[in-house]
Design goal:
alpha/beta; 35% helix; single chain; Rossmann fold; 277 residues
Length: 277
C-alpha cells in the first residue's frame, strides 16, 4: 500500500542549504563510551526544524553511526536535523538494553535539539535492519521513553527500513533452524520475544504514523512489514508499507537520500504530509 502525499519541502523555518554542519562523538550516557555516542548533522542556519534520529543496522552486534551514506546531505537540504546514534551490542547487553540506549539517545536529542536548530517536540525515528526493529519497538512500546521521562507524543513519525523482526516469533517460525536458533539467542525466550516485538504494543496511545520501507521481493521483510502495518491500522494508527522495487537489503539503505531514489521520494512525501498536520 502506497502513501499518497505531495512531494514538497518542509515548510518549517527555512534552513540554509549547503553542506551539513557536523558535530561528532557526542555522549548521550555516562560514563562516556564509544557505543553510547551520537553524531549531529545540522543546517548552517534555521531553527525549530524537525529532527531525525537514525539507528544503524548490523544484526544487533555490529555497525556504526558513521554509516549514513547520503542521508545527512539529503535531510539537511530539506530542512531537517539528522542525529545518527551508536548503541551497545549483543551479547554484551540484551536487545532490551539496546532499546534503552535508543531511548536515552532520544532523551539527549530532546534536551539538546534547540542547540542545533531542531524542535525538541518534533522527532522522527528511523532505522535500517536491526535499527528498524529498534525504531519500531521504541515507537510502539511507550515504556522506553517513559523511563527517560518523555511522552511518546514527541515522536511525530516512524520509518523502519527493511526490518525482519517486528514480530519476532513469526520470524523464528519462518526461517530455517540455524537462523531460528540465532534469533532465539539474540531475543531470548518466548516471553522476551513477545516483549521485543513491535506488534505486541500497537494498542498503546500516542503511537506516531508509520511508513515502513521494504525490499519488494524479499519474502521475510515484506511479510513482517505487512504484519506490522495491518496490526497498526487495526488500532487506528496511520500506517503504510512501501515495497521498493529493484532494491536489496543493502541498497535500500545505501541509496536512501538520493534525489532519484523512489523510496527516498516516498519517505519525504510521507514526512512532509505528517509534519504539515
Amino acid at each position: 500500500m502506497r502513501t499518497i502525499f505531495a512531494f514538497v519541502l518542509v515548510a518549517t523555518t527555512t534552513a540554509q542549504a549547503g553542506e551539513p554542519k557536523v558535530h561528532r562523538g557526542l555522549a548521550y550516557a555516562e560514563p562516556k563510551n564509544e557505543r553510547q555516542m551520537l553524531d549531529v548533522y545540522a543546517p548552517t542556519a534555521g531553527k525549530n526544524l524537525p529532527v531525525v534520529v537514525w539507528i544503524h543496522g548490523g544484526g544487533w552486534r555490529r555497525g556504526d553511526k558513521a554509516d549514513v551514506h547520503n542521508k545527512p546531505k539529503a535531510f539537511v537540504e530539506r530542512g531537517f536535523v539528522l542525529v545518527s546514534i551508536n548503541y551497545r551490542f549483543v551479547p554484551t547487553v540484551t536487545v532490551k538494553q539496546i532499546a534503552e540506549d535508543v531511548a536515552k539517545a532520544i532523551r539527549w536529542t530532546h534536551d539538546h535539539a534547540k542547540e542545533y536548530g531542531g524542535n525538541p517536540n518534533q522527532i522522527i525515528v528511523m532505522g535500517h535492519s536491526a535499527g528498524a526493529q529498534l525504531a519500531a519497538l521504541v515507537c510502539t512500546d511507550e515504556r522506553y521513553l517513559k523511563a527517560e521521562k518523555l511522552p511518546l507524543s514527541i515522536i511525530k513519525a516512524c520509518v523502519p527500513v527493511d526490518g525482519d523482526t517486528y514480530d519476532v516469533a513469526m520470524q523464528i517460525k519462518t526461517v530455517e533452524e540455524k537462523r531460528a536458533k540465532s534469533y532465539m539467542t539474540t531475543f531470548g525466550d518466548a516471553d522476551s520475544q513477545k516483549e521485543l516485538s513491535a506488534v505486541t504494543h500497537v494498542a498503546n496511545k500516542n503511537i506516531p504514523p508509520f511508513l515502513i520501507l521494504h525490499v519488494a521481493d524479499h519474502p521475510e521483510t515484506k511479510a513482517q512489514s505487512q504484519r506490522l502495518v495491518e496490526a497498526l491500522k487495526v488500532t487506528g494508527v496511520l500506517a503504510a508499507a512501501y515495497p521498493a522495487e529493484g532494491k536489496n537489503h543493502t541498497t535500500i539503505n545505501n541509496d536512501l537520500g538520493f534525489p532519484d531514489d523512489r523510496p527516498t521520494q516516498e519517505m519525504f512525501s510521507f514526512l512532509n504530509g505528517v509534519l504539515k498536520k
